[in-house]
Structures are given as C-alpha cells and as structure tokens.
Amino acid sequence: MFLEEKFGLSGKTAVVTGGGSGIGQQAAIDLAKAGAKVAIFSRSGAEETVKIIQENGGKAISLIADVRDEKAVEEAFEQVVNHFGGVHILFNNAGICQHKSALEADAEEFKAIMDTNLTGVYIAACAAARKMIALGIPGSIINVGSISGKIVNLPQEQTSYNASKAGVIHMTKSMAVEWVKYGIRVNSISPGYIKTPMGDVPKEMEDAWMPMIPMHRWGHTEELTGMIIYLAGPSASLTTGQDFVIDGGYTCL
Ligand code: NDP
C-alpha cells in the first residue's frame, strides 16, 4: 500500500520511444510492472517487448513511429490516446550513436545524430506535452541524456553524440520551466556505460573504459528503471528540470 502510494503507476499510460531493445525495453517492462499501460514507439516494431509485458499480465502495444517524423509521432500519440484513454508518462529514449570524431564525421553525419537524438527527443516531448495539456493531465516526461552530455568521455571521440546529449540535458531544463504552468514535469537521466546493443563496443574500447569507472563494471538496464519509475510517479511531484546521473561513479573523477 505504501509502495503503491509512493511509486505505483496504476491507471497511468506510458509511452516509451525505442522500447524494442536495451534501456527502452527494460523501462517498458518495468513501467508495466509498476502498473502502467505501455505504448512503444520504434521504427521496426517492439513485438518481443509487448509479448514479455503481456506474459507478466501487463498491457502494451507497439506502434511504428520514427521520432524524426513529427507527423508520424503526433499520429502515434493520437492512437495511444484512442487506445488507452490518455498519456501520463513519456520515457523519451530513442537514440543512436556514432563513434566518430568531429573531423572524421561530416556535416551530414552530424545532422543525422542531431535529427534522432535531439530533434527526435524534442518532437516526442512536444507531442506528449500537447496531448497532456489538451487532456488536462499533469504528466511526467523523462528524457534520456548521457554522461557524454556532461563530460568529454575519452577514449571515445564522438563530438556529435556528445553535443546531442548536452542538448537533451539543457532542453530538459528549458521545457521543465516552460511547462510548469501545465503541471508537466520534465527531467532527464544520464546513464553511464550500460550493456545494450548500442553499448556493445569493441573489446579494446571496453578495456580502456573499465579502469576509469570506480565500480569497474558495466551497468545493467535494470539498474536504471528504479529512477525512471520514481520520476514517473507521485513521489517526484516536486522534482522537475533535473538530470540524474547513473554511472557507477564515473563522473565523480
Ligand atoms: P539500443 O540501440 O539498444 O536502443 C535504441 C532504440 O531506439 C532501438 O530500439 C531503436 O529501435 C530505437 N530508435 C532508434 N532510432 C529511432 C528513431 N528514429 N525512431 C524511433 N526509434 C528509434 O540503445 P540503448 O538502449 O543503449 O540506448 C537507449 C538510449 O540510451 C539512447 O538514447 C542512448 O543514447 C542512451 N544511452 C545509452 C547508453 C549505453 O551505454 N547503452 C549510455 C547513455 C545513454 P528501431 O531501430 O526499431 O527504431
């Protein structure tokens, strides 16, 4: 009863972008375990995630929506509202990575990262906020930044990715302040190295990183979802415009 009051998401609907794998998949599964109905947006479908949620007794749907496509995202939110009756939570997670330095990449490659990681996060956040405002829902939006948006994280040279994630963290603060008047909270999480398909880096890179992490290990997707559930739920009612780092101590050094 106490845990349900503080952290329960029964009766809420959560949209998870990029919920077909990695961090988004775990977030979708655990948001459903906390009681939320879940809609997953991705380019290639998230049937496996939906199946896992349904096997656990939860409710979920998968919708094809590319976060770079404003119209497709708006339509997907419309479908979510028609299907589940509202939208209360957005876990704004879809992202891509590029292991190239500023000089190795060109402007088109830079823009490709920005299109998904920054513009895509903007598009989904605004589409969610428009629905929440129209329905009078005091929702919670959780954007996904990265430690790469806070520090320059050698030995990985990836200016475009770093810039996109710094943009997400500051955009989060701006949206949080602009949307207080609607009762919408906006926060971000900044994970460190998490074992996912994106985090599947060459062994040399892994060997270079591990000594730099005080915990000397990869993080696991399950180690992020407690924070996501907290930020989505009633316990975080005073929390907005903040970035939460979950990185095994990496950014302390
Ligand atoms: P994954 O590659 O496992 O998952 C990313 C998901 O995003 C995929 O399921 C993909 O699905 C979806 N996606 C990509 N582009 C789009 C798009 N244009 N529209 C809709 N969906 C899209 O990566 P992670 O789980 O590791 O990463 C998730 C987030 O966490 C990213 O924002 C990443 O930058 C961030 N992050 C990851 C860290 C890590 O160490 N793993 C560390 C810090 C941050 P599909 O291809 O079907 O569209």
From TrEMBL:
UniProt-listed InterPro entries: NAD(P)-bd_dom_sf, Sc_DH/Rdtase_CS, SDR_fam
Keywords annotated in UniProt: Oxidoreductase
Top-level taxon of the source organism: Bacteria
Gene3D superfamilies xrefs: NAD(P)-binding Rossmann-like Domain
PANTHER family per the UniProt record, alphabetical: 3-OXOACYL-[ACYL-CARRIER-PROTEIN] REDUCTASE FABG, SHORT-CHAIN DEHYDROGENASES/REDUCTASES FAMILY MEMBER
Family: Belongs to the short-chain dehydrogenases/reductases (SDR) family.
Descriptive protein name: SDR family oxidoreductase
Record organism: Brotonthovivens ammoniilytica
